[in-house]
């Protein structure tokens, strides 16, 4: 075997083979690459030394060195690929996600009955073409009373009934101010519902200082009274899942004229139990306040009452939830005592 630059070609090859066998990662492979093919590497020295050989040796040695160079480059490439493949495989195994594993478990939870009720009624009304509107809970006297035709002498304005802030704003006492806000924002024609929290200075077995209402407003041309009655009975039938008996009673609200209250047959006893704990033997339950929107209210919404009319309604969502889910005490809805609540909830009708 010819020697070039004092290096034995065979020995370089053996050294290279031995080094390659011991390699275990890409850094080590790079060191070997430098050691043999770098500027001062053994292979480079062999190649450089070829020119110094006597011409008769040059050809054979040249062939040998070139062959060795090809071998070394080939081996480096193959080994590099093997190492990269095995590193990728290891990485893949470590990072693999087992999609067949069962999930970690869910926390138990459910909608509050009032939220459930709100969603159900909102769905029904959306099916009738109504959109959901919202308004602030901290409201101005102007929207809460003034625009709704509630005169300053009206008892509802009394400090006894309303939570006022020192700056004269208040916690809205009903969702009706959203009627005005929506008319001002969207104009006519209009169909909106507005679910939300309302506040009054009340706290006893049947009243909570915070409760939930859903307002509804329809404004269009030539809206007949019968559409209001039909809309309400459709909504209630869909909500309770059966055809109930209705009773429309004349009533009074400053923001509607004429005004009515809607009673449904008692969902507990249908009027057959004179000791019924839900209707107290009357056979009827008052569930909705409504009426044809007062022209002053339409005007406050910057709509011309000579051209447009409509109806509005207010539903007590807490009461609706109690009736549908058989919850007997209003306080159960807002009480923090979960086990007490669940026992009350489960003992009722579903
Ligand atoms: N705002 C009334 C209340 O809180 C409920 C109500 C009655 C709303 C009649 C209406 C309505 O829109 O037309 O008691």
User: What is the H-and-E element order?
Assistant: EEHHHHHEEHEHEEHEEEHEHHH
Radius of gyration: 42 Å
Biggest sheet character: 7 strands, mixed
Helix count, per DSSP?
12
Helix percent band: 40-55%
What compounds are bound to the protein? Answer: 3,4-dihydroxyphenylalanine
Derived structural class:
alpha+beta
Strand order of the largest sheet: 3-6-7-11-10-9-8
Low-pLDDT regions: 346-350
Give the key terms:
7-stranded mixed beta sheet, binds 3,4-dihydroxyphenylalanine, 11 strands, 350 residues, single chain, alpha+beta, 19% strand, 12 helices
Topology:
Blueprint: E1 3-4, E2 7-8, H1 9-22, H2 26-37, H3 42-49, H4 55-95, H5 113-127, E3 131-132, E4 138-139, H6 141-144, E5 170-171, H7 177-186, E6 190-199, E7 210-220, H8 225-240, E8 246-253, E9 256-265, E10 284-293, H9 295-300, E11 309-316, H10 317-325, H11 330-334, H12 338-346
Parallel strand pairs: 3-6
Antiparallel strand pairs: 1-2, 4-5, 6-7, 7-11, 8-9, 9-10, 10-11
Helix pairs in contact: 1-4, 2-4, 5-10
The protein binds 3,4-dihydroxyphenylalanine.
3,4-dihydroxyphenylalanine is lined by residues 174, 176, 215, 253, 256, 289-291, 312-314.
Summarize the structure.
This protein has helices at 9-22, 26-37, 42-49, 55-95, 113-127, 141-144, 177-186, 225-240, 295-300, 317-325, 330-334, 338-346, and strands at residues 3-4, 7-8, 131-132, 138-139, 170-171, 190-199, 210-220, 246-253, 256-265, 284-293, 309-316. α2 (26-37) runs antiparallel to α4.
């Amino acid at each position: 075997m010819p020697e070039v630059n004092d290096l034995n070609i065979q020995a370089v090859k053996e050294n290279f083979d031995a080094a390659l066998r011991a390699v275990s990662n890409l850094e080590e492979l790079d060191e070997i690459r430098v050691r043999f093919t770098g500027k001062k590497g053994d292979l480079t020295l062999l190649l450089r030394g070829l020119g110094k050989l006597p011409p008769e040796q040059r050809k054979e040695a040249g062939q040998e060195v070139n062959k060795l160079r090809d071998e070394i480059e080939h081996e480096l490439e193959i080994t590099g690929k093997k190492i990269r493949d095995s590193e990728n495989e290891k990485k893949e195994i470590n990072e693999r996600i087992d999609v067949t594993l069962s999930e970690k478990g869910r926390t138990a939870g459910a909608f509050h009955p009032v939220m459930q009720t709100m969603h159900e009624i909102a769905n029904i009304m959306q099916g009738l073409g109504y959109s959901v509107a919202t308004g602030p809970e901290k409201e101005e006297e102007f929207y809460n009373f003034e625009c709704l035709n509630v005169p300053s002498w009206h008892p509802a304005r009394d400090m006894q009934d309303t939570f006022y802030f020192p700056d004269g704003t208040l916690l809205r006492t009903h969702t009706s101010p959203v009627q005005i806000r929506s008319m001002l924002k969207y104009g006519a024609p209009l169909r909106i519902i507005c679910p939300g929290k309302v506040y009054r200075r009340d706290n006893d077995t049947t009243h909570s200082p915070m409760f939930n209402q859903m307002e509804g407003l329809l404004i269009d041309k030539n809206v007949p009274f019968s559409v209001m009655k039909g809309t309400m009975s459709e909504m209630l039938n869909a909500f309770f899942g059966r055809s109930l008996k209705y009773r429309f009673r004349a009533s009074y609200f400053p923001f509607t004229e004429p005004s009515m209250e809607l009673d449904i047959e008692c969902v507990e006893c249908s009027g057959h139990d004179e000791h019924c704990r839900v209707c107290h033997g009357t056979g009827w339950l008052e569930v909705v306040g409504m009426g044809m929107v007062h022209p002053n209210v339409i005007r406050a919404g910057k709509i011309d009452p000579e051209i447009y009319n409509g109806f509005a309604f207010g539903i007590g969502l807490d009461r609706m939830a109690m009736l549908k889910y058989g919850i007997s005490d209003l306080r159960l809805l807002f009480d923090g005592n979960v086990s007490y609540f669940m026992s009350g909830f489960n003992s009722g009708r579903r």
